[in-house]
Amino acid sequence: MSKIKKSPLLFKVIEFFFITLGAVIAAFALEGLLVPNSILDGGVTGISIIFNILFNWKLSLCILIINMPFLYIGFKNLGGKFLVKAIYSIAIFSLLLELFHSVNHVTDNILLATIYGSVLLGVGVGIVIRFGGCLDGTESLGIVISKNTNFSVGQFVLLCNVVIFSIAGYFFGVDRALYSLLGYFITSKVVDEISEGFEKTKAALIITDDGKMMAEHIYKKIGRTVTILKGNGLISGQKAVLYCVLTRIEIPELKRIVKEEDQSAFITISDVSEIIGAHIKSNNKLKEKKK
To answer: Mean of the per-residue pLDDT values for the chain?
Structure first.
């Protein structure tokens, strides 16, 4: 493992390999099990499935086109590193959907299709997310909204999916909406387990030499404020300790910033079960706080 970390190129190859593997699993779950039985997923994929069933539009093209505005939002707020992996993830996912479209679906049993399709979809999406990719752009928009409102990313995504499943109930019947909702909860749980928290807030603790500089870069590139504490290592001496609360999708960008700013920095990431009180998320709120 240490050899892989010392070889950035090999590490990148492994990352893109697993992103591709996750996209393969997710695409098969949709075209082989869920879509043939009119079972919807949430987010952009759910919207695309509705267009596919109602208007016979290609699912692969719908996912690719609808995700474009969200990719731009993600680029503006999470940087170029996010954009490269997100574009690759969605492009390969769309291509694989087109390839699997001609494959015969696995079963006509709607309950089996819902359960196994959702589990496979969760595995695929979880793998992609774990290695820094993205198959659904709604979470990028959720991050932007969470920075300027009291909505969390998870709350925004859930609200979007409630609307999507309501539409599914209107067009395809209540039973399909209920099966889709069941599938969504199964998928979310599986993604939770694989990607270490799909909608969970994370807390990062960073020990570094130059806390002020790193805090400024984190705020500039991610939009998250940082609490700076003074620390004293037994061997390393005086250090700055940074505490930052952020979302799971922002963690790869945080790691990149820390690595670029201080190669010797030490970072730990943990789950946060609840946030109580004000949490500064935007430039305007920071100015108000300073005033």
So the answer is: 82
